[in-house]
Amino acid sequence: MTAGTAGPPPVPRYGSGALADLPPSVLAALGVPDASNVLGLAPVPRVCVLIVDGLGWEQLRAHPAEAPFLTAMDGGPITSGFPATTVSSLGSLATGAPPGAHGLLGVQVAIPGTGRLLNCLRWQDDSVDPARFQPVPTVYGRAAADGVAVSYVALGQYRGTGLSRATVRGARYRAANGLGQLVGRTELALREGDRSFVTVYHADLDATGHRFGAGSADWRHQLRFVDMLAERIADVLPPGSALHVTADHGMVDPVERVDVDAVPELRDGVALLGGDARARYVYSEPGAHDDVLAAWTARLGDRAWVVPRERAVADGWFGPLGPGMLDRVGDVIAVPHADLAIVASEREPWLDRMVGMHGSLVAAEQLVPLLTTSRH
Fold first, then answer.
1. What is the average pLDDT score of the chain?
2. Which positions ≥6 away from 44 have C-beta within 8 Å?
3. Is 194 exposed, middle or buried (0-12, 13-18, 19+ CB in 10 A)?
4. Does 5 score more than 80 pLDDT?
């Protein structure tokens, strides 16, 4: 795996080459007023954005034989955003805003004032309104207001979930339970109206990487199906269409595990443990902040960036923070740059069973492809 360096962490390229820059660039290409075309996308009346969950740039480049179509497409890498995880990236792809603005700041974040965590993937807390927790208007709503036919194509099981209500509002949700349906629903949606904007989300590569590892035989076989999916969507593009293929994050297979639940000095003074194995949020008990920061730095500082949240915010890890978002971030943030996962066997027993993981600022997790083809 790519271990990164022990120097200053590389900050996502918000405003010049990050996932959050893709949605406004798409709107500009579609002719939506006042949209900033940061990425310089060509004007076109129909756009499809294919989001392949877990397809990092480095992983794609390492397996050209399994992805000949994707490898031949024009484009290069952009940065995901911090943390490099699905909820944060889907928030940015939905809003055109960095994580600090839309507030989906990781898998598990504090619900300010409650002493509880919200799992933003599962969203099992009915007291948290997705439209209030993620308050930024979506680019889908903005495009629809300008007369663009807007659709979101993904598994039916995601329809109506908290995360979908936070990120997909403004788009027509088209359920597609299989590769053929993904292509068919996408083709239908792209042909609607005079202008169309279709987002397609496919999760199987990420799930395979979590279970078997990025680069495993299973992952490589799944990549072949992803390549086929992209090629089939390209084949059904109507005239005047562009296809942009991107991802939410890359992935690594960390071998070393530090179990917070088994290390007393990492538990002391900790009220809540959020984030994920490669991007930990540590919420300290009142008065314990300095001790928690010192303990986590002493134990992990040679293999992770361990910083107070104010430092991460000041250095631009999240982009500009919106009102009330600071309290969602852990008091201490621990981000491995080495071959390390920070797990919690008692609180999160599912996590230690994963092989592939993501969330960090290292290139293998941060860099995602932005690949383009079009039909005139």
1. 97
2. 29, 30, 240, 241, 242, 374
3. exposed
4. no
Read off φ and ψ for residue 225, nearest 5 degrees. -70, -35
pTM over 0.85: yes
Which pairing describes strands 367-375 and 241-246: parallel, antiparallel, or unpaired?
antiparallel
Residue 219 Cα distances to 204, 210, 262, angstroms: 9, 9, 31
Query: How many Cβ atoms sit within 10 Å of the Cβ of residue 61?
Result: 13
Within 8 A by CB and 6+ apart from 343, the residues are 257, 258, 259, 260, 277, 351, 352
Phi-psi region of 50 (alpha: psi -120 to 50; beta: other; left: phi over 0): beta
Distance CA(68)–CA(70), nearest Å, equals 6
Tell whether omega for the bond before 45 is within 30 degrees of 0, i.e. cis: no
Joined tokens for residue 223: 């990549």
Ramachandran region, residue 206 (left: φ > 0; alpha: ψ -120 to 50; beta: rest): alpha
3-state secondary structure of 24: helix
CA distance 49 to 245: 6
DSSP secondary structure string for all residues of 77-88: EEE--SS-SHHH
Q: Which residues contact 48 (CB under 8 A, 6 or more apart)?
A: 186, 190, 198, 199, 200, 233, 237, 241, 242, 243, 244
7 confidence band (pLDDT: 50, 70, 90): confident
Say what the pLDDT of residue 352 is.
Answer: 80
Structure tokens at 262: 């088994």
Closest Cα partner for 195 from 22, 47, 49, 25?
A: 47
Neighbours of 301 (CB within 10 A): 15
Query: pLDDT tens digits, residue range 268-289?
Result: 999 999 999 999 999 999 999 9
Contact residues for 186 (Cβ-Cβ < 8 A; gap 6+): 48, 153, 176, 198, 200, 233, 236
- CB-based contacts of 175: which residues, under 8 Å, 6+ apart? 154, 155, 156, 159, 181, 185
CA distances from 225 to 71, 135, 158, 203 (A): 14, 35, 21, 12
Please list, in sequence order, all residues whose beta carbon lies within 8 angstroms of the beta carbon of residue 14, skipping any fewer than 6 positions away. 20, 21, 81, 98, 316, 319
SS3 118: strand
Cα–Cα dist 81/22, whole Å: 12
Give buried/exposed letters for 89-109 (b at 16+ CB in 10 A, else e): bbbbbbbbbbbbbbbbbbbbb
